[in-house]
Amino acid sequence: MSCLEESRIPPPRLVVMLNGQPPRRELLESVVAGAEVLIGADAGAMRLREAGLRVDYVVGDFDSVPEDLLRSLPAESVVHDPGQDDTDLEKALRLAVARWQQPDIVVLGTTGDRIDHVLGNICGAVRYTDGAFIRFVEDHSITYFAHRQLQFSAPVGATVSLLPLGEVEGVRTEGLRWALHGETLSIGTRGVSNVVERSPVRIEWQCGHLVVVRLLEAGELFEW
After folding, report:
1. How many domains does the chain divide into?
2. Can you say how many angstroms the Cα of residue 109 is from the centroid of all Cα atoms in its chain?
3. Domain shared by 148 and 127, yes or no
């Protein structure tokens, strides 16, 4: 295979399931339908099994995944990462960027009853934006983590929020009602609740970490 042919290979589509609440069945199925690899982050493997889905890999310190589930998988699918300095999500993302080049990753089960876990998942995802395109998909929203540029389709009228983690310089937007033309966003609420006027929406920035949240319409499904 030539270098040119290699460059045309699309990045793999991966799903990482955490141990939070998965999205509603129809939304879950629309995500999984386009995925090539399903990864359970520790007890997230149980969530995959409970949903009747396969487990291609399970990764974590295995403090909360049943031993019989681990034994049911091929040895090469079980990745033990015993470190205690990062979360199960970070372990899964580290596996993904080590095994695949610039993977397209959807993370499910990111929310729950602990706000520290939710915020920790956000901080963990931000660390890997230079090696992967990451989205959190929940019942009511898609959260995008990207490296300095982002494009996505959305219905006209959909709500989009730009949330800077620290100072984000040179922010430019296309397709949003209140456009930005190279401004700097700092921690605060200036970027909250913008509105889609045309699709696709394009956002780019020069430096810093920008998290973008797009609210889903009632009954809307996911498209890779």
Report:
1. 2
2. 10
3. no
Residues 133 and 154 both lie in one domain = no
Contact (CB, 8 A) for 38 and 48: yes
The residues facing 142 across adjacent strands are 137, 214
Residue partners of 156: CB distance under 8 A and separation at least 6: 196, 197, 198, 199
Q: Are residues 135 and 147 in the same domain?
A: no
> Last residue of a domain, which of 139, 158, 184?
139
Is the same domain home to 110 and 155? no
Q: Cα(40)–Cα(45) distance, rounded to whole angstroms?
A: 4
d(CA 112, CA 58): 20
Of 159, 137, 116, 127, nearest to 13 (Cα)?
137
DSSP 65-110: S-HHHHHTS-GGGEEE---SSS-HHHHHHHHHHHHSSS-EEEEE--
* Phi, psi of 215, rounded to the nearest 5 degrees: -75, 140
pLDDT at 37: 97
Alpha-carbon span 182 to 198, nearest angstrom? 19
User: Could you state, in chain order, the average pLDDT of each consecutive group of 10 residues for the chain (224 residues)?
Assistant: 48 94 95 97 96 96 92 95 88 95 96 84 94 97 97 97 97 98 94 97 97 96 95
pTM for this structure?
0.92
